[in-house]
Amino acid sequence: MRANSLAFRLTVSAAVTAVVLLLAAVIILGELFEQTVQRNFDARLRAIMDGLQVSIELAEDGSPRVQGNFADTRFQLQDSGWYWQVAPVVAGKKPAASASLLEPPLALPDLEQDSRDGEGYARFSLNDAAGNQLRGIEQRLKIFGSSDDYSFVVTGNFDELRTEMQAFRRALYGSLALLGLGLLGAIFFQVRYGLQPMKLMQRKLNDIRAGKVEMLEGDFPEEMQPIADELNLLVQSNFAIIDRARMQVGNLAHALKTPISVLTNEARDHKGPLADKLVEQIGVMREQVNLYLDRARRAARAQTVGSATDVEPVLQALARTLQRINRDRGLEVLVEPFPPLKFRGERQDLEEMVGNLMDNACKWSKSKVVVRGKLLPQMGEDGRPWMLIEVDDDGPGLPPEQRATAMKRGQRLDESKPGSGLGLNIVSETAAMYGGRADLDQADLGGLRAILRLPALSGMPGVVI
Domain containing 315: what range? Predict the structure, then answer.
């Protein structure tokens, strides 16, 4: 999954959203649970407070005391954190306290009147002498038979609840972590499943480019069907434009052929320098017209969608033809084995390009011409595969400073060899129309190596799209 792909963006955005929501859930659920635990704890303390208020009475000396056995055994265990005490607001009388409170009274914080609720309860937290964290409530009431106010206090050991809350948080973290992993897996599957129609469209477009089909066909979702329809219209328009271009080029060639032939015949019927000059210039005109018409034909073919050509059969056929033509010289034209390759273009253009290179190699070779093809390991800038076709000969070769000159139109470095000097330039121009190029280099055989870089077809062995 590439960083700039739609799948990566969807996955990352959904994953970040899920993580943020899970973190928010952890915080919210943790706070809600803690508040619930505190409310339940306070409710227990108030229930104990109610029992304490019912059980309290005044002794003969006026000090408060509890009738009978009050509360549970936790109020009997020393330093348990569960304490109660009843003390006069005005000092002077001995307070009553639970057996668990060794040194009454408790050192309460300053409980302001405005911190109490509607029933007169004040809530507080403190640490006892044993280090227990306490949570307690306090209420001021009068005891039956007395006009003085007494402070009723009940506390509980909040460390017990803190341990419970920590256990809950650990369970919550683990559960939400598992949920998060499940969500990430579901997001990944959802993105992959949701983008399958786009993958299907990509494969169908590759099939059109490869010439396997002419239309974009498939069961696309409702949102993508208009795109498929527009692409089909675009492909049909491309085919129509190419057909019209070919027809216009053919019409132009036919329209020019007759007048040029008439001019040539008329000029030849007359003798003299003017007629000779006219014949010469008409020949140049014919050559230029043919050159640019051929270039227009090649350009039209290069822009055709859906053209694909097997490379090896073309090379083998050219090798057999050239070896038969040069059999009197004992020339060997060898095509080395290579993996299957398909040229993303017209067969006629491939034959013209490779044929010119092989013909040029045969002209200069002493005894051997070697042709090979290979797929480039790196993708091109368009994200598609490319291939190289190399033609080596054992001739005299060319010095580096003359190689660029040899690729120019009409350049002939040796007039003793037949030809117009247009072959290598035609190869270079045709390759450029397909986005490729033609280069010259030193061959391992000692002569010249012609290198042709051309677009290959997607989906070949070793090519991952």
Answer: 309-455
